């Protein structure tokens, strides 16, 4: 038999596959004998088998034996042994039986180099191996990492850890020879990622692979058509993902915005109408707002949207508003310097701030003189209301030099011209044709009287007449007598309040019969229409009523105690106390204030002083109200009501500046008994410092507690002694 190598080889080949697939030592002995026999083996490649064995000997398995291995042992009547926990089975791999079921569980970044060598040796599909490696890295590394980051609410930007894992996956994908397969693998991974930076970058990578696939010159027509359809859909998916990620990074990913990611043009419109655009004008820089300009620019770039077209469309929408409400708003005299009541004009200014000032002015300037909307071929016919709105935006956008250069309006007359545009727009709303030039040259008293004669039955005209009279100092007593009655009759309360405040400076009109009656009605009317709980508008109205009360030239003729009671009924004790402070009789005033403060919560009064009287137009009234409350608390010894409140510092300041030593001692005792040692120390020190300064001396002891308190007590004992 030894001389018949062919029979020996056949026998050994048969024996080889009956050995345990985990007993590499015996398999190696048999293979070496077959190799030494140097006879032809038809069933397998001996060199390939030896190469596989060498790789397996250097490899330690990382996964438990699979079911296919157990089945293989049973089918071949082989017994499992301890080696199968550490070794991969030789025979199934050599015969390519269940190759991927055995290899796939073994995949990791550490084992991949050896498994790649084995796969190359066994001439299996390397593309399939790379795909399996990609899936392994994604499931075991990338997905848990991304989900953990989302769970921790980490930012949706670049992350070093995920980038490292993604780089490994990209390296494997780029090794896949079949471009279609590589693109499909990358796309499958991207599909499973949650929205965010990683998904967007994965889809960007897919697009690059798809482009490379379609550049293959050997691609047939059907495959190319299929690839183009796939790439078209992939591009849309990438754009949507990149848009979502931009919204997430900027914290603008609310449901309404996310719904519009398929309609980027409408999304850009919605972003410019975001509430933060208005808030940034009202907050005066207190809050941090999203950079809408940057977000819009990025989303427009991602989706290839013409941003200038969007800009022109939005300008038309915001500037060319129509209807009586617009004329009413633009007619407000305060709007000359304040556009905070018109969110659309705030949006115009904000949007144009993204452009150079000269460009922004060049966009709006033609609106002032054009007949039709100049930024499109089918825009609306322009009215003076539209022109006034555009000019208001220009005044807010540009400095005086720029405006003078572009508009040919002297810088010192810019606001006056804006008023004229507003007046002309209001005349236009009444179907009275004027241009700005004809308005400027017209005699205003004649205009006012003609307007009154023909349009006094229209509230809008009555309001305009009042504004024109105030602007051009038309103070005809007979006209104003009728005008005040009409303003009151049309219930134009807000406007009438401003008119009366302006007429305080015109004593010549105080004698007309309707003047005092209108004042009284205006002060009392808001109490009739208001109801608890007060709406923000009603609260603002009552605030204006208090301002009007302070300016009323007929104060002595008003029932101030009754007005104070009405303020109190609407939970406005600070305003009620303010009204009582206006009572002319000192005895009556003191009696009413004592009774009022005895029955109300002094902290609530002080809170309202801080919250509702901080506008700066009430002069010294808020501090007078505060001092009255603090003096009452001091006299009644009710210090504990202010402990742990923000008002304690004001009480301490009052005690230091005008308090008697006995009152200061009472407050000190209260603070110490309530464990407010720091407040007690500062009170004693500031009081002693103030007392010594009044005597022209300087405190010799500059140290803090307990010296200041002791020094005060020594001084107090000396006084009482």
TrEMBL record:
GO cellular component term of the entry, any: kinetochore microtubule
Chain segments carrying region Disordered: 693-721
Residue spans of biased composition, Polar residues class: 696-721
Gene Ontology biological process terms in this record: mitotic sister chromatid segregation; mitotic spindle assembly checkpoint signaling; protein localization to kinetochore involved in kinetochore assembly
One MF annotation (Gene Ontology) recorded for this entry: small GTPase binding
Residue ranges of every copy of the RZZ complex subunit KNTC1/ROD C-terminal domain listed in the record: 79-630
Protein name: RZZ complex subunit KNTC1/ROD C-terminal domain-containing protein
Organism the protein comes from: Champsocephalus gunnari
């Amino acid at each position: 038999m030894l001389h018949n190598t062919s029979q020996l080889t056949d026998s050994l080949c048969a024996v080889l596959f009956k050995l345990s697939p985990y007993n590499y030592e015996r398999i190696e002995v048999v293979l070496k004998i077959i190799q030494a026999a140097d006879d032809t083996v038809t069933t397998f490649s001996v060199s390939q088998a030896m190469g596989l064995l060498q790789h397996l000997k250097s490899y330690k398995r990382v996964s438990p034996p699979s079911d296919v291995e157990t089945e293989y042992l049973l089918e071949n009547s082989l017994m499992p042994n301890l080696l199968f926990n550490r070794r991969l089975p030789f025979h199934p791999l050599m015969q390519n039986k269940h190759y991927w079921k055995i290899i796939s569980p073994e995949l990791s970044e550490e084992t991949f180099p050896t498994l790649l060598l084995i796969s190359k040796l066994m001439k299996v599909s390397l593309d399939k191996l790379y795909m399996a490696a990609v899936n392994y890295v994604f499931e075991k590394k990338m997905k848990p990492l991304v989900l953990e980051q989302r769970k921790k609410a980490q930012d949706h930007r670049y992350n070093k850890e995920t980038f490292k894992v993604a780089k490994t996956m990209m390296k494997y994908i780029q090794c896949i020879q079949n471009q279609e397969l590589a693109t499909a693998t990358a796309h499958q991974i991207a599909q499973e990622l949650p929205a965010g930076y990683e998904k967007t970058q994965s889809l960007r990578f897919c697009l690059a692979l798809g482009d490379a696939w379609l550049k293959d010159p050997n691609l047939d027509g059907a495959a190319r058509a299929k690839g183009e359809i796939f790439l078209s859909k992939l591009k849309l998916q990438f754009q949507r993902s990149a848009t979502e990620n931009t919204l997430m990074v900027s914290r603008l990913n609310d449901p309404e915005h996310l719904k519009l990611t398929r309609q980027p043009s409408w999304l850009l419109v919605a972003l410019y109408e975001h509430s933060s655009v208005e808030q940034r004008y009202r907050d005066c820089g207190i809050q941090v707002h999203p950079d809408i300009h940057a977000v819009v620019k990025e989303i427009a770039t991602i989706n290839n949207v013409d941003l200038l077209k969007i800009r022109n469309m939005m300008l038309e929408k915001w500037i060319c508003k129509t209807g009586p409400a617009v004329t009413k708003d633009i007619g407000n005299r305060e709007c000359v310097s304040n556009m905070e009541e018109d969110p659309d004009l705030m949006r115009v200014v904000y949007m144009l701030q993204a452009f150079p000032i000269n460009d922004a002015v060049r966009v709006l300037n033609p609106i002032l003189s054009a007949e039709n909307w100049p930024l499109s071929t089918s825009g609306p016919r322009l009215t003076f209301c539209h022109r006034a709105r555009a000019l208001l935006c220009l005044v807010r956008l540009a400095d005086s030099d720029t405006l003078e250069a572009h508009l040919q309006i002297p810088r010192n007359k810019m606001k006056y011209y804006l008023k004229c545009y507003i007046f002309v727009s209001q005349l236009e709303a009444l179907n009275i044709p004027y241009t700005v030039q004809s308005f400027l040259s017209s005699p205003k008293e004649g205009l006012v009287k003609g307007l009154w004669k023909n349009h006094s039955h229209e509230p809008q005209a009555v309001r305009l007449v009042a504004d024109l009279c105030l602007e051009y100092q038309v103070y005809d007593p007979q006209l104003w007598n009728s005008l005040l009655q009409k303003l009151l009759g049309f219930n134009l309360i807000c406007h009438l309040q401003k008119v009366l405040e302006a007429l305080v400076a015109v004593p010549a009109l105080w004698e007309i019969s309707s003047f005092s009656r209108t004042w009284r009605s205006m002060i009392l009317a808001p109490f009739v229409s208001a109801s608890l709980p007060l709406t923000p508008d009603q609260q603002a109205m009552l605030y204006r009523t208090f301002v009007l009360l302070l300016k009323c030239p007929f104060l002595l003729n008003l029932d101030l105690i009754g007005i104070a009671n009405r303020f109190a009924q609407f939970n406005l004790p600070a305003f009620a106390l303010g009204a009582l402070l206006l009572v002319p009789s000192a005895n009556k005033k003191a009696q009413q204030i004592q009774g009022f403060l005895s029955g109300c919560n002094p902290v609530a009064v002080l809170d309202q002083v801080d919250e509702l009287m901080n506008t700066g137009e009430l002069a010294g009234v808020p501090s007078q109200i505060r001092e009255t409350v603090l003096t009452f608390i001091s006299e009644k010894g009710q210090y504990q009501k202010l402990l742990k409140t923000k008002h304690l510092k004001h009480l301490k300041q009052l005690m230091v500046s005008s308090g008697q030593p006995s009152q200061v001692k009472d407050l000190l005792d209260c603070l110490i008994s309530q464990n407010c040692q720091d407040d007690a120390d500062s009170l004693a020190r500031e009081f002693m410092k103030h007392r010594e300064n009044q005597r022209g001396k300087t405190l010799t002891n500059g140290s803090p507690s307990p010296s200041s308190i002791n020094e005060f007590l020594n001084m107090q004992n000396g006084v009482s002694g």
